[in-house]
Fold this protein.
Amino acid sequence: MLQSTPIRKHLRSTLEINPNLNHHEWRQEALSLLSSRSRARYNLGLFHHGSTQAEWNTENPPTLDNNGVLQEVPYPPASVIPPELPGNAGGAAVSARERIVKEHIAEIDSLEEAKDILLDSIGIDNIRLVSHFVQAPEILQLGTLWILC
């Protein structure tokens, strides 16, 4: 069974009061929160869900390939549930699929917990101000992380 480290129930920083003054500290805490989740699956936890490309590149500097060319480290692929296996699939294939499904569910659960904490730290007035009014008023974007309110 996959387990994550216990999650804080709130951030020390908030954007409810003086959001312009507190934004940098709040953003660092938000990225730290995401980084602390799903560490068994990703080296940087769920950092990739809230980081910008520049922040990702800072944490994952390019590496040299066998030809001496710098290669950027790509974001991890989106977590998806694999398709059902045929009825005659072997035990190893079934076990591998079950493991991937459990990892996916653990990642989604971790994201939901983190989203709740982030929304609480933003405050309802700020959620209303930054909601994505074109796509849907209940969607908020934080970096690459879309939060359903």
The longest helix spans residues 91-122. The two ends are 29 Å apart (CA to CA). Strands lie at 63-64, 70-71, 139-142, 145-148. Helices lie at 19-35, 53-59, 91-122, 124-130.
